[in-house]
């Protein structure tokens, strides 16, 4: 009788072990990380751009390596939340379609909050920014009034364009022409060549270009607007947006934000503009 009981128990144990093996049970199998796909403009230094000259960065599906302040921030936040960072360079004017389709999880790239408040689930606003105008240093353009009769260029679907078509429309109406272009690197190439008279852009972009071309460009003292950067997620992703906010605050408490700002200081990044407390 005991032998029969032992035989039955052994059979049950064997069946349980087989079921567990078929189901892929393993006490040592690591949990799969959640992917977090960051959409960014690959020509938007110092926040996101193509790594060159051996710079370390993040490999994208296109085979290129990208770096930048916001990509480093995203990497730190992903590490803190056990997410697998995936960087995805995008056409800026396709960002909303990509976010809506789920091809990206967020827009994180010097993304202006003002004017878009109800369009996304937002992280906390983390960086102070402004919309400014840059001209060639020897152009004689010193004020917004000096732009009358001049050709000004800005990026498509940018905060600067929104301002010039909105609150500062009266200023834009004095221009000879307001042009748009796909990225700011090419905008500043046109400015340097004399094809346009000025570039309207984010303060951070202006700081980067002035640092890269010392003495070539000059920023006007008058600004078009002041604003803030934040991370934009699809509407309804409020919980994840809050996780990002909390993570950024913790990174600041640990001193990592200041360290990252210092890393990009030669490109115009300044910890004094960090505003998330």
Q: Tell me what portion of residues adopts beta-strand conformation.
A: 15-25%
Total strands: the figure is 15
Q: Which regions contain 5 or more consecutive residues with pLDDT less than 50?
A: 1-27
Helix fraction, binned, reads: 25-40%
Q: Estimate the mean pLDDT confidence.
A: 90
Question: Secondary-structure element sequence?
Answer: HEEEEEHEHEEEEHHEHEHEEEHH
What is the rounded distance between the termini?
73 Å
Distinct helical segment count: 9
Q: What Rg is obtained from the alpha carbons, in whole angstroms?
A: 25 Å
The dominant shape is globular
Largest sheet: 6 strands, mixed
Structure classification? alpha/beta
Protein model, in words:
- The protein is an alpha/beta fold.
- The chain is built from nine helices and 15 strands.
- The strands form three sheets. Strands 9, 10, 11, 12, 13 and 14 form a six-stranded mixed β-sheet that branches. It has a five-stranded mixed β-sheet with strand order 6-1-7-15-8, sandwiched between helices.
- Mean pLDDT is 90; it is low at 1-27.
Secondary structure topology:
Blueprint: H1 2-22, E1 34-40, E2 43-44, E3 48-50, E4 58-59, E5 65-67, H2 69-81, E6 83-89, H3 95-101, E7 106-107, E8 121-122, E9 127-136, E10 151-155, H4 159-165, H5 169-172, E11 177-181, H6 184-193, E12 198-202, H7 203-212, E13 217-219, E14 225-229, E15 232-233, H8 238-253, H9 256-263
Parallel strand pairs: 1-6, 1-7, 10-11, 10-12
Antiparallel strand pairs: 2-3, 3-5, 4-5, 7-15, 8-15, 9-12, 9-13, 9-14
Helix pairs in contact: 2-8
What's a concise summary of this model?
Strand 2 and strand 3 form a beta hairpin.
């Amino acid at each position: 009788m005991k032998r029969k009981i032992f035989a039955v128990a052994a059979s049950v144990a064997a069946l349980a072990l087989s079921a567990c093996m078929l189901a892929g049970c393993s006490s040592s199998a690591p949990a799969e990380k959640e992917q977090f796909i960051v959409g960014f403009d690959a020509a938007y230094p110092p926040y996101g751009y193509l790594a060159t000259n051996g710079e370390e960065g993040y490999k994208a599906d296109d085979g290129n390596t990208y770096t930048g302040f916001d990509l480093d921030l995203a990497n730190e936040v992903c590490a803190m939340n056990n997410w697998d960072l995936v960087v995805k360079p995008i056409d800026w004017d396709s960002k909303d379609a990509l976010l809506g389709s789920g091809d990206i999880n967020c827009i994180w790239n010097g993304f202006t909050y003002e004017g878009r408040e109800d369009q996304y689930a937002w992280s906390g606003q983390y960086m102070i920014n402004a919309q400014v105008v840059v001209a060639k240093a020897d152009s004689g353009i010193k004020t917004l009034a000096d732009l009358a009769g001049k050709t000004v260029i800005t990026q498509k679907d940018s905060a600067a364009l929104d301002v010039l078509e909105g609150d500062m429309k009266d200023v834009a109406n004095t221009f000879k022409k307001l042009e748009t272009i796909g990225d700011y690197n090419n905008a500043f190439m046109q400015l340097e060549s004399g094809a346009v008279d000025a570039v309207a852009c984010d303060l951070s972009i202006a700081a980067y270009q002035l640092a890269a071309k010392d003495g070539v460009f000059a920023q006007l003292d008058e600004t078009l607007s002041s604003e803030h950067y934040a991370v934009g997620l699809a509407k309804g992703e409020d919980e994840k947006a809050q996780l990002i906010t909390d993570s950024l605050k913790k990174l600041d408490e640990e001193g990592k934000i200041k360290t990252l700002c210092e890393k990009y200081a030669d490109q115009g990044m300044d910890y004094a503009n960090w505003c998330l407390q």
